[in-house]
Amino acid sequence: MKPELCILFYYAFNIASLAIPFAFIAFTIQRFCSLLYHTKHFFKTKRWIALCIASQWFVEFIISLPFVFRTSRKCTNEFWMTVYTLVTAVVVPSLVNFILNSMIFGHVRSSTRRVQPQNPSAWASRITTQQENRQQAPKISRREISLLRQMIFMFAMFIGGWSPVFIVDIFLQLVNVNTMITAVTILFGEYVSNRALVYDENIRPNITRRNMAKPRWATVRRLSSVKEILT
């Protein structure tokens, strides 16, 4: 293979390895900003979504540039290249997703935590406060929380399925490993990815139906209590 084609091949390989993990990062960043900065109209627009997608691909192209400027002219997958792919495709996305999702769920938990008052005057004060802050309160539905959990689960399945491929690729640079092991890890990654897609197709309609059909008994009881207080 010509050196130019070899460089292009490994450059494209690294970009393909980063595509799905960085897509999860883009989704997490989009949800993170739309929830924590809900008062900013920009984070609710399609322009913000398009910016996240464009930034994802731009970062992938930039991160993969070391494969273009490598000094070796041999068409081989060098040791530093395998380590670099593992770090950029597994370690960094996992760390970023963990931090952002922890902050998202921490924000959701703190925003939904309410202290139940014990007397009518406290109820009236609470109603007034809620009416004043209704416009500023973030609207976080159960469906959004379910989708976030679903995305985290799918990301974990992807990382768990494809990490062995990158790890075995590193060991191939150090010791002689049976090529069957590489084939098995690739098949395992494909299987896990397919199972994640099947899970996504099955769980997404259930999330929608469950949130549409589930009665809001807590809201009904709260309104009944308020009515009794006012009367």
Automatic annotation (TrEMBL):
Give all residue intervals belonging to the G-protein coupled receptors family 1 profile domain. 1-199
Q: Which InterPro entries is this protein grouped with?
A: GPCR_Rhodpsn, GPCR_Rhodpsn_7TM
Superkingdom, natural source:
Eukaryota
Q: Which GO terms describe its cellular component?
A: plasma membrane
Q: What is its main location?
A: membrane
- GO MF terms held by the record: G protein-coupled receptor activity
**Alphabetic keyword roster:** Cell membrane, G-protein coupled receptor, Membrane, Receptor, Transducer, Transmembrane, Transmembrane helix
Region Disordered: which residues? 119-138
Keyword set includes rRNA-binding? no
PANTHER family linked to this entry = B2 BRADYKININ RECEPTOR/ANGIOTENSIN II RECEPTOR, NEUROPEPTIDE RECEPTOR 15
Provide the protein name.
G-protein coupled receptors family 1 profile domain-containing protein
Query: What organism, scientifically named, is this protein from?
Result: Adineta ricciae
